[in-house]
Amino acid sequence: MRSNNRPWLAIISAVVAIVALSILSWLSQPPEDALVVYCSHDSIYSEVILRDFERRTGIQVVIRFDTEATKSLGLVNLLIAEKDGPQCDVFWNNEVLGTMRLKNEGVLAPYAGAGYRRIPDSFKDPESYWTGFAARLRVGIMNTATAIPLQTDPISEESDADLSDMAIAKPLYGTSLTHYSALWHELGGERLKDWHNDRIKRGLLVVNGNAVVKNLTAEGQCNYGWTDTDDYYLALDDARTVDLIPLRTPSGKTICIPNSVAMIRGTTRPEAAKRLIEFLLSEETESRLAKSRSRQIPLGPVQRDELPEEVRWLATLAEDAVDLNLLHQAHDECRAWLETVYID
């Protein structure tokens, strides 16, 4: 009679599985001396810069990206959750207001180096907890093959246009939330709520992300939408029949939204973190992002005559931008309202 080895086989299989999982978990952990960067900026632009920093300095960089739909909100919430046991050293955000929230939550550490000093006051924290760089503008994108060319924004407060073929990104995240926060700041909460609800009733389409707005408009499924200049130029470079309208607040200000960088409080790699922050805030990095397909706007001094013509034009619009430091309270109040609208 043969003995029944199945119980032993099951035990051995379980042990092997546990060991394998332990090895995989160990391998997935970043090395102790690596610099951990949470990044909500598009990986197509940010990763090459971070890898270049790694190559030049010899400092290993571990990057955690977020999704297009949730963008900075997911990483902001993660950083708050990790506040008492930080896993991140540097946060490269694709906007500013979420970074301001991290400051108020006690997640960030101040740092004012040479890079901080080269950025204008309206694009950095007065107490040096974060610094902006390489900005985008909020714009209206239109498909000139399917729609009559527009001179004004059809989603604006004054317009009574049909909105059934127009789109915006869900304003709970990223630059769309900054846009809504600027409107909240100038219009007030109740007026913005009425404006938003009226647009939804009139058929305005709300989608997951600025890139979706760009794609729908570039492909002719929508005639018009709100997005950022980097998405607009991607469509233009792909030979789409698109044009743009610079968007302005009710007071006439443009909406210029920089990337932001900040050091995490409790980092065990402060010197490496500072070196990366200086690298990101340098003239070289801002010029590099300006010359990329995203056409991002340098905020500090650069050789303007070396910039693409369209970036020089965008930079003149950015000079008349709303001061983002004024939007913190509006951001908190607006986000709280939008969470009741879009989060069950």
In brief:
The protein is of the alpha/beta class.
List the SSEs and their pairings:
Blueprint: H1 6-28, E1 35-39, H2 43-57, E2 61-65, H3 71-81, E3 90-93, H4 97-104, E4 108-109, H5 114-117, E5 131-143, E6 166-169, H6 174-187, H7 189-201, E7 205-207, H8 210-218, E8 224-228, H9 229-237, E9 242-246, E10 256-264, H10 270-280, H11 283-290, H12 309-318, H13 328-342
Parallel strand pairs: 1-2, 1-3, 6-7, 6-8
Antiparallel strand pairs: 3-10, 4-10, 5-8, 5-9, 5-10
Helix pairs in contact: 3-4, 6-7, 6-13
Describe this structure as you would to a colleague:
With 344 residues, this protein is an alpha/beta fold. It has two domains: 32-135 and 256-321, 3-Layer(aba) Sandwich (D-Maltodextrin-Binding Protein, domain 2), CATH 3.40.190; 137-255 and 335-342, Periplasmic binding protein-like II (D-Maltodextrin-Binding Protein, domain 2, 3-Layer(aba) Sandwich). The chain is 44% helix and 16% strand. The chain is built from 13 helices and ten strands. The chain has helices spanning 6-28, 43-57, 71-81, 97-104, 114-117, 174-187, 189-201, 210-218, 229-237, 270-280, 283-290, 309-318, 328-342, and strands at residues 35-39, 61-65, 90-93, 108-109, 131-143, 166-169, 205-207, 224-228, 242-246, 256-264. Strands 1, 2, 3, 4, 5, 6, 7, 8, 9 and 10 form a ten-stranded mixed sheet that branches. Strand 1, helix 2 and strand 2 (61-65) form a beta-alpha-beta unit. The longest helix is centred in the N-terminal third of the chain and has 23 residues, at 6-28. The radius of gyration is 23 Å and the shape is globular. The N and C termini lie far apart (62 Å).
